[in-house]
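Quick sanity check, C-lysozyme inhibitor:
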Amino acid sequence: MKSSALMGGLLAVLMTGTAANATPATFSTYRKDPAWEQRFDAMFGRTPKPDWLRNATESEAVSVTMDGRPYTVLLACKQHDCANHQLVVLFNREAIYGLRFETTDNSPKEELTWLNIGGGPESIDGKTILYAAITGSLFNHPAMFAFPAGK
């Protein structure tokens, strides 16, 4: 599949750099790949992408394991308002899932929009990983997010 080859090439380039000279992988890094961007856009379905993504603050990619398979997690948030507007994506070569988080300062209400979540392992472990990225737990404890293959 052509998109898998492109994605594999991008992942190989990202993983071959040394720590001293490698640019951290972020949303911007992946969005330069047209095949990845197409998958990212499709993930939203009929849900509009947030306008703030164009100038978002981005975190470095984090590796996790879901259902015994490696995935990458990316987080972006609205510049100067990260606590209230976030988007996180969990993906590998075969699948892409997301969570859009919206709230207002000091509000107990959170609006969670799950993107491309079906009935597979993403419906439980994937949601756990995505929400953990929003809360910061994933970035503070990345080794805790290695979920083995299901039974």
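Posting the structure with no commentary besides this: Residues 2-16 form the longest helix (15 residues).
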